[in-house]
Design goal:
Elements: H1 2-18, E1 24-29, H2 35-52, E2 57-62, H3 63-66, H4 72-79, E3 84-88, H5 97-100, H6 111-133, E4 135-142, E5 146-150, E6 164-166, H7 170-178, E7 182-184, H8 191-197, E8 202-206, H9 207-212, E9 221-223, E10 232-238, H10 239-242, H11 247-280, E11 294-295, H12 300-319, H13 324-332, H14 334-338
Length: 343
Amino acid sequence: MKKSLLGGMALLLLTSSVYAAPEKLRVVGSWSSLSLYKEYEKPYWKKEFNKEFADTKVRLSSLGQVKLKGAAVYRQLSKGVFDVVSTVGGYVVSDSQAIAGLDFPALANDIQTARKIVEAYKPTLDNALKNDFNSKLLSVVPYPSQVLFCKDKVTSLAYLKGKKIRASGWTVAEFLDGIGATGITMSYSEVPQALQRGVVDCAVTGGLSGYSSGWGEVADYLYPLPIGGWAYVVTAMNLDTWNKFSKDEQSKLLSSIDSKITVPAWKKTDYETSEGEKCLTGQECSYGKANNMTLEPVKDYDKRIARKILVRNVIPKWVKKVSPEVVSQWNASIGKVVDIVAK
């Protein structure tokens, strides 16, 4: 009888470990108009996830549907209102400055470097999400590099002195200040009219996003230095929800997100970065009729200037906003990749 009771308890524990996933997940994906959501997040959470976790029902929304600005969506994640959220890291740095260290202006001039930076910084990012948002890092995927659209001629950073430029965050504003420009805050949807009327001289976004939003119809010059970084989309799960999954389920979940979202989305971003340039500058465009912007190749001396401004103007301001431990972690990870010491 005793053996039977012990055996039953062991079976119950084993069963609860194997089938530990929650019954429901409330998931917020990124922007529904962009390929990351349409081609990877939505198919994964609506179909692929269910293949691995058949007993868990998913209710999926997008950032646009929940209508929460900035870090508010992650605050709701921390409280358990949502179980999973995908949002641009730059949107939430007001509540977690450690995340700002992932995506400084012109830190990664190509997608290969961007990938190395993300991989190196994951432990720090995971810890920041745990401490600041009670959440677990699931993935990091970039949007196409955030480049410069200008109304008037720009062939180097020197042309931006005295210009008014729509900035996408405080680090970009600090970078612009370092080159003698003025960062302007305005909503994304206001930019085309602002460019047309001269309210701003330039603005920063991804090439393909700018093409899709009509920026290429009102701006004349494209300078593809990633002043706005890569706008990484960070996906995290509420830590209480994460802990409901068994260890095996956690491993399975991370593996499936990596293979179904992260890996293919990085490849798509690489494609969309180059395709955005083509669609904006009169080349063959697979997304529709090309615009007629002038593409100005990035000068090597501008890369050197950008690095100096980053080291002199941006990183020291960031160092004051984070703990010495985070600075040390940055230097041991991203700093090694790009050969920069934050101080």
